[in-house]
Amino acid sequence: MDARILCAVVAVAACRPSFEPDAPPPYRERACPSGYVRDEAREVRLVARLEANGFEADRARLASPVCFGPARSLGVLAGSRVVLRAEAEDEELAARLAHLVVHIEDDVGDGCRHGLMHAVASEQRASILEDILRKRWALGPAPDGATEAIRDYERRCAKP
Asked: 94: which of 49, 56, 106, 134 fits an S-S bond (Cβ 3.0–4.6 Å)?
């Protein structure tokens, strides 16, 4: 095999995380955390919104079930579950859902499982995707941008 082709194959393979969508817990927890509820109709609307904007529905479904409740930010991963702020508008939540799917695909977990640099790279990719969607939908910047998230990863990963 030509060395250039081999390098290209290795480079592409290195970019795709090894997440298994049917993996057993902790990756596929089903119950929502206390204080949060599943709203399947809203989850379907968010996925449809993403799909209508070129986001693969199968990727968005990796986040299922989506839990809604009193989140401080637009949305975060709680363990392997996506929790979104119930009061936010669907477009904002769809953009954040796309962001969180990147983290699920990258197997970020608490941010430190694969090291700080892995978490930062995932945050940068996720934030770019969210920003693109927010601009497309004229939402303005995310209220909790990548800089804040990266600082949070730095704090969590620095703990012994």
From this structure: 49
